[in-house]
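Lesson 9: reading folded outputs for more than one chain in a single document. The general rule is that every protein is listed as its sequence immediately followed by its structure tokens, and records are never interleaved. Here is the first one.
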Amino acid sequence: MATFLYKLGRLAFRRRHFVALIWVALLTLAGVGAASAPAAGNTSFSVPGTEAQKAFDLLEQRFPGMSADGATARVVFKAPSGEKMTAAANKKIVKKTVAELKDGSEVASVADPYQARAVSKNGTVAYASVKYKVSGMELKDSTREALKEAAQDARDAGLTVEVGGDALNTTPETGATEVIGIAIAAVVLVITFGSLLAAGLPLVTALIGVGIGVSTIAALASALDLGSTTSTLASMIGLAVGIDYALFIVSRYRAELAEGREREEAAGRAAGTAGSAVVFAGLTVVIALVGLSVVNIPMLTKMGVAAAGTVAIAVLIALTLIPALLGYAGRKVRPAGEKSKLLGGGRTPKHPHKAGRPNMGTRWASFVVRRPVAVLLLGVVGLGAAAVPAASLELGLPDDGSQPTSTTQRRAYDLLSEGFGPGFNGPLMLVVDAKDSDHPKAAFKEVGKEIKGLKDVVTVTPAVPNKAGDTATITVIPKSKPSSTTTEDLVHAIRDKGTEIKADTDAQVLVTGSTAMNIDTSQKLNDALVPYLALVVGLAFLLLILVFRSILVPLKAALGFLLSVLAALGAVVAVFQWGWLSGLMGVEQTGPIMSMMPIFMVGVVFGLAMDYEVFLVTRMREAYVHGEKPSQAVVTGFRHGARVVTAAAVIMIAVFSGFIGSSESMIKMIGFGLAIAVFFDAFVVRMAIVPAVLALLGKKAWWLPKWLDRALPNVDVEGEGLRAHDGDRPRDGDADADRELVHA
């Protein structure tokens, strides 16, 4: 592989005009596609195989035109202090608002509060339920504006009016902190390279890669039902890995220049060595993201595949566009150890890696090699302490109760809780399938009677049958809020009771609604976590055996990753569930952790953690293969790689932290979780635990059974095959490298 990538890097360097033209054309094509495609909204959500989804599917069959997945809104009214909603003046305002709400082509129905008995017992709060023919993703902007205007007219008339439901869901905003994250990345790159131009290359290429990836997602969003969260995730991960991969290549290029190689040769060697690490690091990220499909939740699968595509683009750009741009830059990108004149350069050490005092990476690695047990214990105990809150992890999916108090959805949620009780925000819909029953009407009544007797039930509405009379819907209002464990217990109790009812009446009872769907989704994600972990870690373990030709190094990499993920989950629980530093993070409402967070963090963080593992340890492997002792190889790996890995980690943390400013709680939590996980993994696991373990293992770290060594193909990540090219000097206009690549 190293030889092939070496030839590819030289080809890209020499044919830079052609390579640059291809990438500009791809960016233009993706941009045109995105501009001409219909705008994407929030992706439709389904969870195949769950009871809640089966009930939704049954509703579509038995209640045609009901729009079971149609958007909903609750317009909540509160009377002025000392007044009642039943007062004539207030009734008039509500009646007028209901009439306004009915005026729209996408409106299916509007329930008058006074006819639907939607007025609280104390008379201070009422609500009008609005049902739409299309999903929240498909609602026109004009329909949303009409809803807002109707609510505002009622406010102007003197009532307190708030709107809840999914009809107002919009694309989340990330805020200025995302730009700050990119700015921090730029500063880190300038400090790392000592050159504005060298620092700019990773940023430019990462933005080109993200531009192509996100534009392609936007172009396909309508056809493939990709939501706004998909593109946000792709840009988050694509930007982080795009900068990192380019950073690895440019850093190795400057190191090769410092050893006296000509620029085309240096570009080829950078692609052959650091490029090999980039390919395998990218593969682990892609495996982790595509592996999310095993959960069998379409939205999660689409998010993972889209992000994986963006990562693949980042790898291709690092291997081709970076060498091409280095060709354009010429002497403006200086050898390692030199700074540009603008940043105080001018002195050029003959051997920068040998002159003067050893760099920070060398000094740190030497310290760890001398004190491996102390460093290992400190790292493991520290991560263990950070992981303690993870034992209290409570999972759920966000609802309007998790929105910031500044939003109308949250205020509507609070008003409904105040007027009707907390469980009113999470009604359960029962779908009673009595097609096989001899007495459907009697079965419907029996279901209502049995459910009323359950604990934690406030209200059970009369059954509403379909035209055929073989299926009915019943609404159950719990006492507790939607995200509580009490409501989850009630859902399970209803399903247990449904088994008894079916035995007596031959009628099947299915529980659905947003609350039941959230519970089923959380359970499905929990059940999928272990198989997913086994699949992703197993595949990556095999890949790393191929890269490092060792059993213990990949095993250590996997165990270190588990430590960092558990510590990161502990930090997420401490902030978003316990409320520690919640004000600093802009978390207005604490509560259960998003149910897809653990499995999502496992996928993304595993892939990203392997970036540092591959880049850092391949330099150690390279030194060991070239004859250094195991302990010295650790120090050599840190001398060449610690500065780059540190810069890469700081950049990735800065990029992910930028998404903490998002108005969407899911994006905020993902941004924080990934940022803290990268911090733990890069600075505690890879920079402390990894060298300590390798120092303790010595030669055993690189042990591989002879039979396995013979069976594994030699991918030559450390660039051993490039020794044959020592002394090669490219000739301008020579086409030999092109022919070599074709025959490789």
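And here is the second record, again sequence then tokens.
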Amino acid sequence: MTVAMEKPEQTQTAEPIAPAVRGRRISRAMVLAVILVLWLVLFAVLRGKQTLSLAAADLTGLHRWLNDVNDSIGADRNSNPLFLYFFNEIRLVIDNLVTFIQDLISQPSDTRPVPQIGWLGVVGLTGYVSWAAGNWRVALLAVAGFTFFGLQGLWQESMDTLALTLSAVVVALLFAIPLGVWAGLSDRVNRIMTPVLDFMQTMPTFVYLAPLTLFFLIGGASAVIATVIYAAPPAIRITGHAIRSVPETTVEAADSLGATRRQSLLKVLLPMSKRTVVMGVNQTIMAALAMVTIAALIDAPGLGKTVLQALQSLDVGTAFNAGLAIVVMAIVLDRVTTAASAREETARRSRNRFLKWRRPLLGAGAAVTAVLIYMSHTYVWAAEFPGDGGMGSSIAGGADDVTTWLQDHLSGLTNAFRDTITNGLLNPFQSLLTDSPWWLVGAVLIGLGVVLGGRRAGITTVVCLGLLLGTGLWSDAMTTLASTVVATVLVMVLGVVFGVWMGRSMLVDRVLRPSLDAAQVMPPFVYLVPFLALFGATRFTAIVAAIVYAAPVAMKIIADGVRAVPETTVEAATSAGCNTWQIITKVQLPMSRSALTLATNQGLIYVLSMVVVGGLVGAGALGYDVVAGFSQGELYGKGLAAGLAIVLLGVMFDRITQAAARRASA
């Protein structure tokens, strides 16, 4: 009797809620439509008025003030106590670390015409460390990869890049691991660190470089410090997550046995978190390698400098050869650290009878490695890589031949594709942003922020837009925004198509995911090279490279979201007579709304970073401003302001899309 009376009450309370929810969704869509229609109407009336355009060589008062600050810092660098006893000391320590590693493996040291450890010793040491940390397959890959650098004629450049990467990783982990452990042990510390880490990871890689050159000058020290700032957050996050993921029952058992807090950390938490922490080290190494190549903009040595010089002279062959070396180094470092994180578990599962011989074999390998290091230190033939890098010349020549063939035979197709996207999508949208009055665009962006992300996102948008106006680069920021939005839209199209395909088919996922993982390993610089050959030095080259750079992360997020939809829901839709298209559009995508929003967030951040790097190949706008600021002293202040504008765009859209994701999952 009681149950029969309760059911109607539940039905009565549930019925009015559904229309209300639908009404809210419809009203939000209607508000967005009204905002966009009003924007188009006012654009038609006010086009070209109050656009705040600024010529490439023009400077605002802020830019001149920043130039003066740079000049005054340079004049006081050796007299100001803050520099004498703080910044200069930090630069000295980092320079000494970098120089030490360079003297060890890449640069002539003291009176020696060659490094302390020559190529044979480096290859042997790399193979041994890879074997000890991972397995013999990874060791063979590492030996082959490092030998390939010499065959390319890029041994010293590769070792310079490795030296910068190792320096940055060592310094980053000295801070990141303790901070990650602290964040894992303390909820308060974790809450404090989270927004700081969010901000650090939101900023494109370019942005770290300009401010640091103010205090640490151009060169290796600034490159390493910028890399540390960029590469440390993944290790902090993943280490904290690993510590918090240890089961409470295990910690309580240790406490009940009388373990102190220190013993619990060293004997329980860290050993049980070891695999995840090593994954964090892997992410730090990958981020460091990406950053040290981009740091070529501030005169950091290595492969990035070779790529940068080749891009500036449109030498596709040389850029491809050096870019290939960066890819090989990224793959080797990724595979070694990935194998290290999984080695113990793999060994436990394996019944290989040779495992009992591992320690004696490692001892013998250590002896052989020591002999190789001694030989490379003593004999010139073992120190200098033999040959003249003929393979690198062949690779560069082949890339040039392919480029010429593509331009001769496919230029009609590639130019048509470029012009279609540029004239049909990019130019109209860019015109809408750059030719509208600044206050109209600002009002539209604030409205979108409030509707999509809520009041807090709207407030963030207001603050970011106000500061963006203060940079004096409104028109350039809108040009960059247009390229970013267009690229993000195309990224999401690819992400939805391939993400849904992967989410619905495990076979497709197994085939595509390794390629997507490999694509995420490659530094951003590398993506510019093939598209420079296809499309020339244009902003479209940067957009296509940004799409290819950002699409993998969007695809994987959407695939995971689609796969998370309960099988019972899909089966119910199938039994109700829905076809495949209806299941995707009516069930799986709507139920993956939070994953779609997160994919948009991550895709936009990746695209914004890459579109700016595209300033090297004709993307213009903020990317060009930053690059010009590094190369032309009188434009330094403008480049610094452009870096700030990029940060503001990234923070604004990160907050809007994150808030929208939280709303979608609520």
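What the second record shows: DSSP finds 30 helices and no strands in the chain.
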